[in-house]
Amino acid sequence: MQQKLRLVLGSKSRSSWSLRPWLFLRHHEVPFEEIVLPLGQPDSRARILEHSPSGKVPCLLQGPLKVWESLAICEYAAETLALPLAWPLDPAARALARAMAAEMHAGFADLRRELPFDALRKPTPKATGDGAAADIARVLALWREARSRHGQGGPWLFGRFGIADAMFAPVALRFHAYAVALEGPEREYVYNVLMHPAVQEWLDAAAAEQPQDPVPESPAERTAEFAVAADAAEPDAAVRRYVDDPSEIQESSLAETQRDLPRPVPADAGKAALEALLAPRAAPARPVPAPLPVIENQDAEQIPVDLVKLRSFILPP
Ligand SMILES: N[C@@H](CCC(=O)N[C@@H](CS)C(=O)NCC(=O)O)C(=O)O
Which CATH number is 5-80 given? Predict the structure, then answer.
């Protein structure tokens, strides 16, 4: 019998590299124990080094074995747990998937630096420099190529969920968090990543974490929840909504509302999926010390959200 797996992770709100193998294992319902270590603390490095020889997370432990590096962890899991669809079966697709995963593992430094992973960020656009813009364009081109050439068997890059999807999942979450303009298949792909039950689980766990490190943007923006209420059937009608404060419902134009909505929302989003996308993420159960006030959102339930109508507002006909 194999010894149990333990996965050493960083804070879920911050550690994009940890998300990759975690998601791969969770997608395949592989049982493992989590050891979550807060990042950005004075003792973070020492605590990580107790488990991970590289001084970085993630690191997979199995008895005396330590596997660090996100890609190597996914590979090890695929081989030892016989997960053959970790890579597509067709050699050409397999080569492309491996090249994409390796390019992700080694590259996109501007994108990662300019759009840092923040699982709790309210979707808000951010201006990027040429380097990050080029990285975004490259990622989208890769996704488009994989989906159009090899994605017929399912909603993931190569049809079935594989290592390439796990490697790009944090990028998809960044595109969502920074409201990167997306179209067609890329928009749907980001949506599918966002709606993956394990990704939702990760985001919930991130929301429940004790905030540890300085927040780069305004605290209100970080913790604020987002909701919209639509109360008119006409597409040019004003939309009632709140952004930060549920007690302050304002009217905005439809264009403004569309611009601010969490993205992406594909044309075939069902009611339940849309509901999940718009639902406020649960606030931490325990009190959060200043300067990170929790925005209480109980009032949100009192807003008469007609999701079917709302959907017709935010989706193209
Ligand atoms: N190439 C590594 C990157 C791992 C990495 O950079 N992890 C970050 C967290 S996302 C880390 O451990 N940083 C150490 C620290 O913040 O103390 C991998 O693929 O696993």
Answer: 3.40.30.10
pLDDT one-digit tens code per residue, 70-126: 999 999 999 999 887 899 999 999 999 999 999 999 999 999 999 999 999 988 999
Going from the C-alpha of 284 to that of each of 207, 247, 294, 297, the distances in angstroms are 6, 20, 8, 12
Closest ligand 1 atom to Cα of 117: 10
pTM, to two decimals: 0.72
Q: Ligand 1 — pocket residues by CB below 6 A?
A: 10, 15-18, 39, 44-45, 48, 56-58, 69-70, 105
Residue appearing with tokens 């939309």: 239
Q: Which of ligand 1's atoms lies nearest the C-alpha of 14?
A: 10
The per-residue pLDDT for range 29-59, each reduced to its tens digit, is: 999 999 999 998 899 999 999 999 999 999 9
Distance 208 CA to ligand 1 centre (A): 21
Choices 1.20.1050.10, 3.60.40.10, 1.20.1180.10, 1.20.1740.10: CATH for 84-204: 1.20.1050.10
